[in-house]
Amino acid sequence: MGFMINDSLFIKGAVLGLILPALVFLVYSNIVMEGDMLALYYQLKAMDVHTHVLSLCIFINLIPFLILMRSDREKPAKGILMVTILLALFVMINKFLF
After folding, report:
1. What is the predicted pLDDT for the residue at 69?
2. Residue 37 — very low, low, confident or very high, per pLDDT cuts 50/70/90?
3. Does 4 have pLDDT greater than 70?
4. How many C-beta neighbours within 10 Å does residue 46 have?
5. CA distance 24 to 56
6. pLDDT digits over 42-70, tens only?
7. Max CA-CA distance within the chain?
8. Model pTM?
9. How many Cβ atoms from other residues are within 10 Å of residue 49's Cβ?
């Protein structure tokens, strides 16, 4: 059977799960700070709401996950779910340590 990580559909789902939150944060930074993502992050960190915004950016992964689950494409959906859980853990560690 092999490992699931070697499956190309799983990897494509994982890449999609990484790209979507980054694109959402990029769009948000273009709207709020005219494209300066680093300055926006430090401004949000100073207001202590950076983890809230990052969590909302990760929340966008729900849309392709549900679409893929409805269309019986479980392997890419598992990739999106794995990346979403890892990003959520990153946000939680970021909240409590930094």
Report:
1. 96
2. confident
3. no
4. 9
5. 9
6. 999 999 999 999 999 999 999 999 999 99
7. 49
8. 0.86
9. 11
Smallest CA-to-CA distance from 61 within 87, 42, 38, 89 is with 87
If we measure between CA atoms, which residue out of 6, 17, 1, 3 comes closest to residue 78? 17
Cα distances from 98 to residues 33, 64, 92, 94, in angstroms, run 23, 30, 10, 5
Contacts 24+ apart (CB under 8 A), 36-43: none
Mean pLDDT of the chain: 91
One-letter amino acid of 9: L
Contacts of 26 (CB under 8 A, 6+ apart): 37
* DSSP string computed for the chain: ---GGG-HHHHHHHHHHHHHHHHHHHHHHHHHHTT-HHHHHHHHHHTT-HHHHHHHHHHTTHHHHHHHHHTT-HHHHHHHHHHHHHHHHHHHHHHHH-
